[in-house]
Amino acid sequence: MHKEKSKPNAMDKILVIEDNPDIQSQMKWGLYKDFMVLQASERKEALRMFEKKPPRVVTLDLGLPPDKDGTSEGFACLKEILDKEPDTKIIVVTGNNDRENALKAVQMGAYDYFLKPVDINEIKIIIRRAIHLSQIEDENRSLHTLLEKDIGFAGMIGQSPEMQRVFDSIKRVAGTDVTVLLTGESGTGKELVARAIHERGPRSKALFIPINCGAIPENLLESELFGYEKGAFTGAYNMKKGKVEFADGGTFLLDEVSELSPSLQTKLLRFLQEKKIQRIGGHTDIEVDLRIIAATNIDLQEAIKEGKFREDLFYRLSVITINLPPLRERGQDIILLANIFLERYKAAVRKKVRGFSPEAVNAIKSYSWPGNVRELENKLQRAVIMSDSKSIEAHALGLAEAPVTQVDKKYEDITLKEARERLEIELVKMNINKYKGNIKRVAKELGISRPTLYDLITKYGLNTKYTIK
Asked: Which CATH architecture has domain 409-459?
């Protein structure tokens, strides 16, 4: 059945500025099926056409006849168009013996150059790439406009339905005093959510004190939490208040709560029930009034089944549970955040980076981001510092993904999330074995940070025969 050919997209308009009738005709008939072609043979005519409705792409013959005063019409036209619309993609066309002027035009702001004789198929490729880049830049500008309209919430940015649900949950629980459990992978912003709940609640004028249970050795964690009396142990020369006591009246965040030892889980449960603590070496109950928020990047119900976490403590902590989605499930938020970090770090290092190349955008969208927002920010900071181009190229991001050539049977009849988790487990195990437990080498091979790798090992409860170094 004959299929009617679709008309060129109204956005895919190009202006061809060329004084040679033969080349004009070649460009018109070679391009009209793919683009809306406007044509001009001299500068003033071209500028009139350009001002009516600026096209995304202009092809410009640098060899336009000189003006009466000898001024190069080609360069004058290039300058005037860029002065009016700096983001116009101008492809200069020049003679094979005039490469020096073509490079000069690129230095002035032209997008690319093409040497005569004109090859229609090659110039089509350059035009399509220019249009694609222009569309991406339009998306970037739209995202910046949205930022000015405050699409974020409490320092977090997100348009996706998943993040909007998180923002709505924060608003609902902030005014209460219930205990909240935050779940989600490492790097998804659990501490930001905890701070938002605190700052919008009745305890906002008091302290917000976070503590990372996984970052403090077990033998020191109890004293950090509950404090100690003078003489409680060797080196306890003075009484010390714990973080829980300092947070009295405010909010206390127990990050990586799954790392608490069984004995500390018992003491925390007692505190949640009675709102009282005892310092190490003390015998007096101290009443403390605060709000508890807990956070974890592992499945606590699985930890309960494995006997690693108390079920009664879980129910005390999870009166309200807020799950933070991983970055890879947040759709357009990924590009939105990438643009925010780009603007932040290019301003910090004073670099004139316009945006992302089409390849970089595709790389950002297709990468799984195991380190989530934290990894995205780190990658963008590095890319801005290391980039020497007008836009961030894909290679500057340093993303590494394992190639998948076919679907293995073990991935059949499972969800995408389950497939990702299985692949993450396999890749981590494979590289730990490959590099004999050298975490630095494993993290480098996987393209993630060491803390992210430790989080994956903890998340999946991986046991290896090698000692982690």
From this structure: Orthogonal Bundle (1.10)
